[in-house]
């Protein structure tokens, strides 16, 4: 495990000392709004370090799986983004992740870049599901944007997909893939579902109303893509199975969290 991904020399030293056969890079600077005020730090972690990691992997003949994001797109499409669609980031975070993608492609032949979106899980603090549960226990009303559309992704499903992809990485399969849970929703839809499922499981909630609002009603330093649904056709062909529906995975995650 790398002690500090913002230190490029540490990345190279780690790879040289461990000499892994496969590297899975899930490290990232993910403070989307904060990246607008410190783009250099975001670029160091999301752009430069993955390139150094990729060069190190290439030097020792290791495979590299690198996690990227839907934020490399501007959200102006109305159909799911293909891996071949042209990226056009709207902010510093997406730009830094796109730099990292290019660095990985350029430096390491044996790579998989996996773009994902709206990730949440039992662990960690800052994911949307846990935030809604906290607010729902404290307030009777929350306001959530309804004009940003995407696909929630349970981290356990993503990890499972990565585990299936590792032994399939080869010169023929190397490239970029999209993986999220299946299905589509807005952040508002997602919040409503969280409270419905949490209520059935007995989570302590005070929430009475979820109010849909527009993006301009909730201004943030960084712009978000209004539509960032990712096509799952390519990854499904490689995995041989379709990702679970987001609502099914949400229910399983909340059951684990409650237990």
Structure overview:
With 259 residues, this protein is α/β, with parallel strands linked by helices. The chain has a single domain, classed as NAD(P)-binding Rossmann-like Domain (Rossmann fold, 3-Layer(aba) Sandwich). It contains eight helices and ten strands. β1, α2 and β2 form a beta-alpha-beta unit. The longest helix has 22 residues. The protein is globular.
Number of domains: 1
CATH architecture: 3-Layer(aba) Sandwich
Low-confidence stretches: none
As laid out across the biggest beta sheet, the strand order is 1-2-3-8
**Continuous helix count:** 8
Strand content: 15-25%
- Alpha-carbon distance between the termini? 29 Å
Mean pLDDT: 95
Task: Give the CATH topology.
Answer: Rossmann fold
Summarize the structure.
It contains 8 helices and 10 strands. With 259 residues, the protein is an alpha/beta fold.
SSE order and pairing:
Layout (H helix, E strand, L loop, with lengths): L7 H11 L3 E4 L13 H22 L2 E7 L22 H16 L3 E6 L2 E2 L7 H11 L2 E5 L3 E2 L2 E2 H11 L9 E4 L6 E2 H15 L7 E5 L19 H7 L6 H13 L1
Parallel strand pairs: 1-2, 2-3, 3-8, 4-7, 5-10
Antiparallel strand pairs: 6-9
Helix pairs in contact: 1-2, 2-3, 4-6, 6-8
